[in-house]
């Protein structure tokens, strides 16, 4: 995506200006001000109540406090590496020096980033002339030298339709990718061993209806092995159609920030938000390990506390994240107190599909990241064990499809 819009935070104030309060009569303005004061006071009171409720319901098992580290448990012998393969600096149309991208990634405790400047769009070139298209990568690498962060070389091939934008990562030299014809750029990327994925196929500057679809050219590139993945998530957008394309054409599912401004502002990290990432299930925590996993399609995108991926990849992640911490009958009742622990970075939203009903809620159980939640289960008679089953609503395996997760409970 090109940076065509101001950051989200500015859109809000623009909208307020757009409402043009001067056009309202004075008494209406007074009413609005009083209403704002009322809302602020009410928010303060409600905020305090909600905060204390959250602490109370979290109960014991709150193992992890306010850390922003984006971490997921390893699964099935694979490292769950958190990666952001799409971001910009002033070396194309981003707002920051590349070392800020590294520092943001370190704050998020990411395993890997790729700073992917546009090859064909350099709005800061007059202020920052540079002959070498690898410059942002070199600066990011030196900035990350004393850390564990893996920095991958990449570029954004920035073309109009039928190509659209695409990131190619693991290339060895960005300069030869500056070509007259887009086809040559894709061929060069492949020659260098690049892993290439379609960017924001739902971008409204190229798809007014926000619907991702493939052109004949995209199909040709996929057929040639010159496109191997697709962004199902880009910045603040998600695409069911891109997910369908990934599943239909066996492409790697990718989620990226495509950050141009600051991660903390764009995703309200201080308020509990997070940047989108791709969770890569790698055999080793190296560039080659990540590359092998991407080619093998072993990824899950994480976006607004939603996990998007193939069933074979999301199920082990759910299993590694959720567990029964304890289960016991209270007093002489047959109401079972079941504690479900979530050790992952993502909140989970579960919808009850078991034969049992609950005593303390309807059918939805929300378990915040790194929290334990107690659910009161009406088992009828007292029984030694049972099976709870849930549709995991914040996990998507295909448009509108959520996996079912069964948990064995032994009392
Ligand atoms: Zn783009
Ligand atoms: Zn971009």
Task: Give a description of the structure.
The chain is α+β, with helices and mostly antiparallel strands and 411 residues long. It folds into two domains: 79-304, Alpha-Beta Barrel (TIM Barrel), CATH 3.20.20; 322-410, Immunoglobulin-like, CATH 2.60.40. The chain has ten helices and 20 strands. It has helices at 8-18, 26-58, 98-107, 135-143, 182-191, 216-223, 240-248, 263-266, 287-295, 311-321, and strands at residues 79-84, 112-118, 150-158, 165-169, 195-198, 229-234, 237-238, 252-256, 277-282, 299-303, 306-309, 322-329, 335-342, 348-352, 357-358, 364-367, 371-378, 385-392, 395-396, 404-410. Strands 1, 2, 3, 4, 5, 6, 7, 8, 9, 10, 11 and 19 form a twelve-stranded mixed β-sheet that branches. α3 (98-107) crosses α4. The longest helix has 33 residues, at 26-58. The N and C termini lie far apart (53 Å). Bound molecules: zinc ion (2 copies).
The count of helical stretches stands at: 10
Helix amount? 25-40%
Low-confidence stretches: 5-66
Classify the secondary structure makeup into a structural class. alpha+beta
CATH architecture of the largest domain: Alpha-Beta Barrel
CA-CA gap between termini: 53 Å
The total beta strand count reads: 20
What can be said about this structure in brief?
28% of the residues lie in helices and 27% in strands.
List keywords for this structure.
TIM Barrel; 12-stranded mixed β-sheet; 4-stranded antiparallel β-sheet; 20 strands; 28% helix; binds zinc ion
Note the topology:
Layout: H1 8-18, H2 26-58, E1 79-84, H3 98-107, E2 112-118, H4 135-143, E3 150-158, E4 165-169, H5 182-191, E5 195-198, H6 216-223, E6 229-234, E7 237-238, H7 240-248, E8 252-256, H8 263-266, E9 277-282, H9 287-295, E10 299-303, E11 306-309, H10 311-321, E12 322-329, E13 335-342, E14 348-352, E15 357-358, E16 364-367, E17 371-378, E18 385-392, E19 395-396, E20 404-410
Parallel strand pairs: 1-2, 2-3, 5-6, 6-8, 11-19
Antiparallel strand pairs: 1-9, 3-4, 4-5, 6-7, 9-10, 10-11, 12-13, 13-17, 14-16, 14-18, 15-17, 18-20
């Amino acid at each position: 995506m090109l940076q065509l819009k101001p950051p989200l935070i500015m859109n809000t104030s623009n909208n307020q200006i757009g409402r043009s309060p001067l056009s309202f009569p004075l008494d209406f303005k007074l009413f609005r001000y009083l209403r704002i004061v009322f809302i602020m006071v009410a928010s303060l009171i409600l905020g305090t109540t909600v905060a204390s409720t959250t602490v109370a319901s979290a109960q014991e098992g709150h193992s992890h406090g306010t850390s922003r580290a984006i971490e997921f448990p390893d699964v099935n012998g694979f490292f769950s590496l958190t990666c952001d393969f799409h971001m910009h600096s002033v070396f194309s149309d981003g707002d920051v020096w590349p070392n800020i991208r590294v520092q943001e990634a370190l704050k998020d405790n990411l395993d890997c980033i790729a700073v992917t400047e546009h090859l064909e769009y350099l709005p800061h070139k007059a202020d920052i002339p540079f002959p070498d298209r690898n410059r942002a990568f070199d600066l990011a690498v030196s900035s990350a030298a004393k850390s564990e962060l893996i920095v991958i070389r990449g570029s954004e091939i920035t073309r109009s339709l039928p190509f659209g934008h695409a990131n190619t990562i693991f290339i060895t030299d960005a300069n030869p990718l500056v070509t007259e014809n887009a086809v040559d750029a894709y061929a060069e990327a492949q020659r260098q061993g690049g892993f290439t994925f379609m960017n924001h196929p739902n971008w409204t500057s190229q798809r007014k209806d926000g619907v991702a679809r493939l052109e004949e050219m995209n199909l040709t590139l996929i057929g040639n092995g010159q496109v191997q993945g697709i962004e199902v998530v880009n910045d603040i957008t998600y695409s069911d159609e891109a997910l369908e394309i990934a599943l239909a054409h066996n492409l790697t599912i990718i989620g990226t920030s495509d950050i141009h401004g600051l991660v903390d502002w764009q995703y309200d990290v201080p308020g509990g938000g997070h940047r989108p990432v791709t969770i890569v299930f790698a055999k080793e925590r190296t560039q080659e390990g990540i590359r092998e996993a991407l080619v093998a399609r072993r990824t899950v995108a994480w976006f607004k506390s939603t996990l998007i991926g193939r069933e074979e990849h999301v199920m082990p992640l759910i299993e590694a994240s959720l567990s029964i911490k304890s289960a016991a009958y209270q007093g002489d009742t047959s109401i079972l107190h079941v504690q479900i622990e979530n050790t992952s970075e993502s909140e989970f939203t579960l919808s009850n599909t078991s034969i049992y009903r609950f005593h303390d809620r309807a059918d939805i159980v929300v378990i915040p990241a790194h929290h334990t939640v107690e659910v009161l289960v009406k088992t009828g008679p007292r029984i030694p064990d049972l099976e709870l089953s849930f549709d995991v609503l914040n996990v998507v395996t295909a448009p509108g499809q959520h996996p079912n997760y069964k948990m064995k409970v032994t009392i």
